[in-house]
Amino acid sequence: MEILSKLGFKKVGEWKKLQNNLYFDVNDFKKENKVVFAFVVNSFVKFISSTDEVLEFALNCYVSPKEFEGEEVRVKELILKTLDNGPVEIYALKNTKFFGFKTRFDKQDILKLIKEFNADWNDENLVDRMKKIIGKDRVAIQKDVEEKEKIQTIIEEKPEMKEVLKPEKPKKEYESYIFILGKSYLDRGFFNLKTSHSNLVGGDKEEIQIVVGDKQVISGRISRTANSSGTPRIIGNKPLKLWFTEHSQVNGEIKITFINKKKIKLEALSK
Question: Of 99, 125, 147, 200, most Cβ neighbours within 10 A?
Answer without folding.
Answer: 200
